[in-house]
Amino acid sequence: MKSEDGMRFKNQFKELKHRAKELASSSTEGFKPEVAMKNRDRNIVPYDANRVCLNGQGRDTYINASYIKGRDKIFIATQGPMRNTIIDFWRMIVEQESRIIVMLTKCEDNGGRQCERYWPARNCEFSYGDYRKTNVDEKVSDGCIKTELEVNFKGQEIAVTHYLFQRWPENGVPLTTSSFIRLYRKVIYQFSETGKQSIVVHCRPIS
Question: Which residues of the chain have pLDDT under 70?
Fold first, then answer.
């Protein structure tokens, strides 16, 4: 039963790639030379129609992130932050009033760097630009690390929950969907309680 469940999940994941190729939309902003260093993969950029725009002018507005179409634009999909995009990532969290981050990759996997660590370790804090993050609580359950963060931006205190799902493999999809579905339900429940604007989700680089 578990193998059938995993196979259906894998086939659905592949179907997403095929459907994406059928979409006809421009990606002018993401391919501009002045923002090239903000893209982890040069050929994977957001569509102009649904990209997230940061406050500012010129290249300061760009981040490799997209709204997922839906009734309320609940999700924002983005690349794993690089060292030079960590500040942009936290700008997006604050400006979009996101209070939940779901990370579907490890920072390192099989000896390769998948994502820069952009949040502090347990009982620690660090700063990037005007953003200071403090790890106030951390719990491990069902293959997921749930971290409660306090983010200070110019004196404004913001509570953000970070979920690190550890069971998504470097290649392919999880063998079973049960733990992922439980995570999804937890996230959606928390989202309904906070009443904020979006859930930010990111994964590993596409190989």
Answer: 1-6, 9, 13, 16-24, 70-73, 196, 205-207
Q: Which CATH superfamily is domain 2-202 in?
A: Protein tyrosine phosphatase superfamily (3.90.190.10)
- The maximal CA–CA distance of the chain, rounded, in angstroms, is 52
User: For residue 72, how many other CB atoms are within 10 A of its CB?
Assistant: 8
Q: What is the pLDDT of residue 171?
A: 73
- Dump pLDDT digits (tens) for 110-130: 777 889 999 999 989 989 889
Q: Please answer whether residues 56 and 88 qualify as being in contact, where contact means their C-beta atoms are separated by less than 8 angstroms.
A: no
Q: Catalytic site residue 144?
A: no
In the chain, alpha helices (H): 2-22, 86-95, 178-194
Q: What is the pLDDT of residue 127?
A: 92
Ordered by start, the domain boundaries in the chain are: 2-202
CA distances from 84 to 113, 118, 140 (A): 15, 11, 29
User: Which residues, at least 6 apart from 57, have a Cβ–Cβ distance to it below 8 Å?
Assistant: none
3-state secondary structure of 46: coil
Q: In the numeric block, which tokens belong to residue 207?
A: 């190989």
Q: Choose the catalytic residue: 53, 107, 144, 203.
A: 203
